[in-house]
Structure formats: C-alpha cells, structure tokens
Amino acid sequence: MSGLVQVMASRTSAIWLGVALLLIIVAAHVVWLIEHMQTRDAAVREPYFPGVFRTMYWAATTLLSQGDQPPRQWMARVLAVLWMFMGIIFIAAYTAQLTTTLTVQNIRGAINGPGDLPDKSVATLKGGSAIAFLEQHGAIVREYAQNREVFQALMDGEVDAVVQGSAGLDYYATHEGKDKVKMVGPEFNQNDVGFVFPINSPLRKRVDGALLSMREDGTYQRIYDRWFGAQ
C-alpha cells in the first residue's frame, strides 16, 4: 500500500495529472466554443461562465468513464466521440505506466543505492569505516560486534539493510545468504586494499608477477567467482 502511495505522489504521476488537466481544459473550451457559435438564439446561448464549468465537468467525467450531459450540437457531439476515444487511450496508457512502475518497485525493493538510505535502519560492524558515511547520509546505524550478528539482524528483520566491505557482502550473498539476500546498487565510499611489504622487499615483484599471471590465465577470476560470485 505504501508503494502505491509513493507512486501516486511521485513526479511521474504529477506529470500525468497535469497532462490530464490540460486535456480537460482544452476539450472543455473547444466544446463550449462550438456550442456557443452554433446556438443561433442569443437568448438561450450559454455564457462563458458557468458554461465552461459544465463542459469541464463533462470532459473530466468522460475521460474517466461514460460522461453525462452530452453536448447539444452535432459538431460538438462528433468531437465528444473523439474525446471518448482519446480518454480510453489515455487511461490505458496511464494504467500501463502505473502497473510497470509498481512491478519494478516490487522487484527492486525499497533500497537500491545510497540515495535510499536516509531514515532506514542499517547494520554494520562496530567501529567500521561505514559508520561515518551512513550517519552523514541520514541512516539509522545499528552496530554489531561480529559479522554473523550483522547478517542475522538482517535475516531477523531488525534492520533494512547491511552496509560494509563489498568483499564480505559478496561472500555472504554467494554462500550462507544465497537466495536469501541480494546485493543492490553500486559500490560507494570505496577504499583501496592491497599487500604491504617492507621497502626493497624481494617478495613485492614475486607477488606482483604471480597476481599478473593469475589474471592473464583466468585463475584469479575463477577463484573470485567461487568465493564472491560471478559479476
């Protein structure tokens, strides 16, 4: 239900509503003008006010359903038939847009990136580097001492999401959390990770060479896919 309310209050829905109002106003004025011009008897000729309000009501109800108070003049009635046809197309298009938006929202979920974190309950490791980032983005931070506590909080529904190092998240999503959790959004607040050796250490070139060879022959990617999932 909340998803429907969000969609109805979205910018897209506001645009559709604005287009509908514009169409109603245009159709109402055209019908009123035709009837006004085709009514020969000036005594019964309907003035702009309240005549345009009557035609606006007719245009609005016809756009949504079978409107009442049809136009009196034959030319206006021809236009009314075209307006009814346009109404069917408009409602069908809006319904399709609404259905697509709701379907995508249900598939994607409520959190799909850093922009969705404000006011969401987010778990992370106690003292981790993600805490400051989460607080700056308005998330409700829940700190846990161990990784298993972080993921258990997510599985128990105590938090809305988990934010920490991508390697740990990928591992959990590929193993214990497979088919239970989903990684969403791009990586953010990235930090470099690497090997550190003493200056002039002979191990540096050996490790660099081994890593390069593993990348070239595909070994590195196979190991990565096994433990962290295929990208």
Could you please describe the fold and organization of this structure?
By secondary structure, the protein is mainly α. The chain has three domains: 2-108, Helix Hairpins; 112-193, Periplasmic binding protein-like II (D-Maltodextrin-Binding Protein, domain 2, 3-Layer(aba) Sandwich); 195-231, no CATH class. Helix content is 59%, strand content 5%. A three-stranded parallel sheet has the order 2-1-3, with helices on both faces. β1 (121-125), α5 (130-136) and β2 (140-144) form a beta-alpha-beta unit. α2 packs antiparallel against α4 (74-108). The longest helix has 35 residues, at 74-108. It is elongated, with a radius of gyration of 31 Å.
Give the helix/strand layout.
Elements: H1 2-8, H2 11-38, H3 48-64, H4 74-108, E1 121-125, H5 130-136, E2 140-144, H6 147-155, E3 161-162, H7 166-174, H8 203-217, H9 219-228
Parallel strand pairs: 1-2, 1-3
Helix pairs in contact: 1-4, 2-3, 2-4, 3-4
What are its keywords?
single chain, 231 residues, mainly alpha, Helix Hairpins, D-Maltodextrin-Binding Protein, domain 2, 3 domains, three-stranded parallel β-sheet, 5% strand, elongated
